[in-house]
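Support reply, case 0932

Customer input (verbatim):
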Amino acid sequence: MKRKIAVILAADIAGYSRLIAEDEEETLRRFEGYRTVFSEFVDRGGGRIFNTAGDAILAEFQSAVEAVRCAVDVQESLKARNLAYPPSRHMNFRIGITIGDVVEREGGDLLGDGVNIAARLESVAPPGGICVSRSVHEAVASKMALRFSDAGPQSLKNIPERVHAYTLALEESHPGTVVMQNAGGGEAPPAAAQKSAVPAADRQSHLISAGLAVLAIALAGAYAYEYLPDSVRETIGLETRQPQPAPVAETPAPSAGPTVAATPQPEPAATPAPVAPEKTEPPPPPEPRRAEKPQETTPSEVEKQVEAALNAPSSGTTDSEQKRPNPLASRYVLTRQWNDCHESTNADVAADACKGLLESGGLNDDDQATVRYKLGRALRDKGEPDQAIESYDRSIALKPTADAYNHRGIAYFDKSDYAKAIDDYTAALKLSPSLAEAINNRAWTYYKTGDLSAALQDANRAVSLDGTKSYIWDTRGHIHEARGSKTAAISDYKKALTLDASTESSAEGLRRLGAN
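Our regenerated output:
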């Protein structure tokens, strides 16, 4: 064990127990996706995740600036993903960050005051927000354009000395949240922090929230005017086309109204405009996303109208203009596709949604790499390994990740191309040495090729990294059985069934060994 100073980030999900109680499968599925996003931002900031338990994530950084930047990026990214769900199903992280003395154990786990304080500061952070210690605030205050609120000295559970904290709320405060500042902007005394919020603070909070809402609408409108073609702006009512003089023709057009096209186009009722006969009807919008709440009916209608207009050909725009990155389309209009591509358990739905996102032309390289990775997974689930490999290839070319290599290896395994599968699992482990799933997959592939020594070595390592997965114990049980180690195989099969009673391959193993 060795001692060192490190920047520690601790995070967990606010209201996780309630979310699990309401819908366990959906919550666990979404959390896995959110944790993947979290891990990618940690890697990008030069940090590493050294421990996870339940919904908690602990990460280490060398730089306070990178730790805070990672926290902000995570919160902003997950906020966009939450837009696909009703407010009651939003999954918000609370994040605490401190600089402290820690002890590094063999295997990379960290212990000590730094870890404990970060975990306690996380509980002070608002849902969707960040709480940092004074040492972190001093390190980043002059380097990042962020406005922290001084929360004052905090009495944290099992921490003997009070810790001065600063909070950064990136989402609207929930009703009843206490603002840790007085009217003059100074620090409120500890006793005042325990009282319910006063009406003046509520009014101020509501005014700020209303101002942010107006700003968001203005930005959306600006993006629409800047990037969307005329036909889109007209369809959603952002612009009304002025009547144009009737075109010169052998027979003048009637003055009472516009020329009627063979296929009618959707136009604003107030001022209909001429439609060129060569225009064709835009394709109908995809089936609407299942309504989560009645009050969301109006936004979804707008979303469908804009999406249909985006798919319609526009005679006044060039190909380069139509392919220009469009933040409004990729994050609002295509919210349903984004959600289905990332979260749907129906392979056909996920594949269609991912393809729709790629065809929109509004994704940056990082998002495109992620969507191609998700498309590869959906295609593999559909039983199309060759197409899945092609999608993984393009994802890796844009942004090599351990997950993309790991899942391309699975696709090669499906094709019985074990050599390429092992190469991909090895490439994944070079990028993420502690990715237990890739180690387990390589162990199983070695087992299939008959290399039982290499298989057992990987299986032992996978168990030591993540002993909470039944399939990891099941893999090692098969390897022990193949090596003739009956007692060890029975023990692993029983452990797998203890973790998940539906692990049928372990139950079959016990029956084969006469231990059921």
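We compared this against your earlier run and they match. Two observations from our side: The first helix runs from residue 16 to 22. Residues 172-202, 227-238, 243-303, 312-333 have pLDDT under 50 and may be disordered. Please reopen the case if you see a mismatch on your end.
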